[in-house]
Design a protein that fits this description.
The protein is α/β, with parallel strands linked by helices. The protein is built from 6 helices and 7 strands.
Amino acid sequence: AVLSPAPTPLPSTSTSASASDASDVDDVPWGRPAEPWESSEPVKAQQVTKRIHRDFDATRVRSARYVVSSVTIDQCPNPPTPPNFSGKWVGFPDFAFIGRSNVGKSSLINSITGTDGLALVSKTPGKTKAINHFLINECWYLVDLPGYGYAKTVGRQMRDVWANFTMQYFLERRCLCNVFVLIDGTVPTQEIDRQVVTWLADNDIPHSIVFTKCDKKNKKSGPPYSLNVEAFKRDVLAEIWDDEESMPQVFITSSVSNQGKQALLGYIKRLRSVWSGAIEADSSAE
């Protein structure tokens, strides 16, 4: 099996940044101008959620910057609790992107953020070797996860380490809001994609399906992407969920034409609204 229910302990592994240096991240964790919680007065949850809701009127990305590459769950960023904050704070929400090697993940991330080169695009599949966090609009994380599959740059043992760490991230990352599973729309259903989606469903990990490369012609005279999408819904999603309404959200995208970009950002906006409301509700209950 590609994924198993429980991750195994990970060996100590060094990490290298996949983007520009982010040494100043902790200096300005909330952005500017100054926020209410930077004063000496007690801070309420409502003030925090008001800060987060500022971006909800638009789906455009105004800022995107690399934060850190992680190879253990403890290395993932955890924004500090605002001073004098009286409530429950779990950090900015994570929106994770994962897919089979060569699915076009880096190109889609650059398309969504409108920033060329934010995520490294390589002709060699499997170049992402750590969990990369990017801070978007200073209030949510876009997370670039290692692709599953068989990268030629590493051995079987290292692939297992990546798989275990990714599972650990899914199961233990408290601020994980949603996982976007990228599926190559130009090819028929792949068994490894079926296994990943099934594992996420079995472990109650919130996720959505994103079909990529939907601007391209079918490979080797195969079926068009629309037929591949319908086949995936029928052969994978319908086997897991009882009815179409309970299935995860499905997106059709192209990093070339930017098809699906606004739909994805709009969906993230809706999930962020629910997320910040949950923070406020949890804080009020304590």
